[in-house]
Structures are given as structure tokens and as C-alpha cells.
Backbone:
């Protein structure tokens, strides 16, 4: 399918710029097709993003979650 998807829940999409298994262009396309998503691209990271950019990934994820938490 080439359409877009209207989601109510926010979606965090992260990709390593050097990922050889799931190309960052695929993650970017997914983010483009999901209406309520944010795409984060991490330079100098590959498929092992959580191990390679742990602090930055966690910081971005926490900021994302705080932004959308229920009041």
C-alpha cells in the first residue's frame, strides 16, 4: 500500500543513518505515511542504535513521551 495512515496515538520512529539492515529511507517513508509520527535520524549509528547512541536516543524518547503524556 502506498497510502497514508491516520493514527491517533503518537509514533516515535528512530533510525541509524548507517543502518544496513533497515535503510533509514524506509524509516523516513514510514514516518511520512503515519500522520502522527516523529522521525529521528541518528548519524554515526547503525542497526544497533540503542547501543550506539543510548543517551541521545533516551533523551529524545523521554522528550517525546513528555510531550504527549496525559494531563
Residues:
Amino acid at each position: 500500500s502506498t497510502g497514508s495512515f491516520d493514527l491517533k496515538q503518537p509514533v516515535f520512529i528512530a533510525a541509524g543513518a548507517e543502518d544496513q539492515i533497515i535503510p533509514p529511507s524506509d524509516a523516513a517513508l514510514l514516518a511520512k505515511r503515519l500522520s502522527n509520527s516523529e522521525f529521528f535520524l541518528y548519524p554515526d549509528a547503525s542497526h544497533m542504535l540503542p547501543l550506539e547512541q543510548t543517551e541521545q536516543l533516551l533523551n529524545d524518547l523521554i522528550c517525546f513521551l513528555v510531550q504527549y503524556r496525559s494531563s
Remarks:
- The CA atoms of residues 16 and 26 lie 11 Å apart.
